[in-house]
């Protein structure tokens, strides 16, 4: 069977009563804390479970349509919710970098891939899936097919059933039912909840031209069950949680909020907004149409360095301004906001400047296929200017104490360099903010989380 290389990659309280305007120094922001809040559980995969680039060609599992980027499997942090299909509760990973919602069902065939020898016993690491028949029946055609750029894929058929997330139910929702897959799971989830636009559901099968359909979130807002936005707040793992290999409780707050904001504290003066761009904004995808597909933004500038004395102008980056050791680079390029990506993936030239700003500088570890720095290194500042406000990565996200090399002396950098797009802002950025995905206004909004 031939697959296309698509990177596609609760609290039961009454619904939101509507959108309220609150003032910030950047104007009126139509957000209110919603009662439709679903707590997310974080799962951290032990470092030993990561596949090495020295033995396998692993690509990123994030939503995009492009040639593969040579990366190791760095997706070691997952955020999980419980989703009810019919009357069965399934644990699924939350993903803003794809649109389909799918889950496995018996009989399930788990297969090896081309780089795995005959001695390899397939183990897709998926939890128990849906049992029985979907109440709304199934579609004979088209088949459900989705391939990801880390070489994983899922295949099966479409069916219909009611889907409940928190207290909101999408009636007779179209869903992917998977019975054939190569996957790299960890035994805790049965599938994926995709929160992208309907357009991405059309990129199915070898011709990538199936008619699109409304995913779960789209159905919910079109049926006026929620306002047409959702927001995400992600917790950060602490140092003693990194190698558990199990689910981590998140009393400090990881939430998916449908129709409004999650119940977490933010700096109200930090709110900023920016336009969501169409799929043609990413040249590597080669789309001519400007349909909205994923959450693509163009930050205003990037800030990096150590707050010291001014840099010699002769050594400053071209087209950048350096003040008190911090360089502001105004080069603009599109990035995806993707909760399904652990690391942030950014242009090589920019990230190499960040690596050099560590003291001592970060270095490439060939056994891991990524850049690491000494765990006690001095961490530089790295920020993204969006809508006139700069959001800085937290030091714990730039130098991840929970992701160490085998010696235990080197920690992984939360940003990795790639030679081409699509670029991604992943969990390493999102743990510092509340991110609002506003469909009605075609914009994203961000606010800095207060320390937690």
From TrEMBL:
Keywords linked to the UniProt accession: Hydrolase, Protease, Signal
Residue positions of the active site: 95, 338
GO BP terms in the entry: proteolysis
Domain of life: Eukaryota
GO molecular function terms attached to this record: aspartic-type endopeptidase activity
Family matches, as InterPro entries: Aspartic_peptidase_A1, Pepsin-like_dom, PEPTIDASE_A1, Peptidase_aspartic_dom_sf
PROSITE patterns: PEPTIDASE_A1
Signal peptide interval: 1-18
Any Gene Ontology CC annotation: fungal-type vacuole
Domain Peptidase A1: 79-447
Keyword Nuclease: no
Matches recorded under SUPFAM superfamilies: Acid proteases
Family: Belongs to the peptidase A1 family.
Name of the protein in question: Eukaryotic aspartyl protease
